Known about the structure:
The protein has 133 residues and is of the alpha/beta class. It has helices spanning 2-17, 26-39; strands spanning 67-74, 81-89, 94-96, 109-111, 116-118. It has a 3-stranded mixed β-sheet with strand order 1-2-4. Strands 3-5 form a two-stranded parallel sheet.
Amino acid sequence: xxxxxxxxxxxxxxxxxxxxxxxxxxxxxxxxxxxxxxxxxxxxxxxxxxxxxxxxxxxxxxxxxxxxxxxxxxxxxxxxxxxxxxxxxxxxxxxxxxxxxxxxxxxxxxxxxxxxxxxxxxxxxxxxxxxxx
Length: 133
């Protein structure tokens, strides 16, 4: 139990001390690139890590109608950073819901509200851990 608490403390503090120490695994970065292409999201900056809290990945909390956030968490099971939430509210995105969401195995929350996405929920999403859509 003590080891788990120590590991959680290290993960949490690594984000606070130096955001660049939070590095998303390559397969999830590639999944985010696919998602961006599928929905026309062209202002994510892939030259910085998506878990870095860079302004292209996280917007200020000042607007309820507009949100651009990718949230990552360090998991004890593998000690790696994984995307758990994607919030793209009010981005004027068009197209269909991105099948590549299924390539983010730890994703539990997706918010695409106030966009122009249409179509049915992709079959690929059946294998996800999504809890909130």
